Amino acid sequence: MLVWIICIFYFICIPLGLFSAVAVVIAVASPTLPIQEEQRHYFQSLGYFYYSLKALNYAVVLTWSILLFRMKRLSLYFLLGSLALGIVMMIYNYVATDAFALAGAIGHIAVAVSWAFNLALLYYNWHLFKKGVLR
Known about the structure:
By secondary structure, the chain is mainly alpha-helical. The chain has helices at 2-29, 37-69, 75-96, 99-131. The relative contact order is 0.12. The mean pLDDT is 88.
């Protein structure tokens, strides 16, 4: 049952995340849409490399959730790949931009909660892998 809950969550969140990413790109590219200059500068400073990694990560996470839903052993490796991409994106974000200053305490707490959630998913996927539930 937990696998169903996780997969449904990701099947809903991935399209919403893609929609959000496209909306941000459109808002930053359009000079007529209202967006704060600080936000515009931040999103522009991320560059194509970051957005390419983000698109790749969405594809990897979608593949992982489908594999987990189908109870495949390969799901663990896709989750590890997604976490590795997430680490690269986070480091790039903090190095290439002033994200550390912009995030504030709430932003850092949100990042910590997100990583705790991802590590819990990794543990659960690993547990299913070790028990032989995944085929």
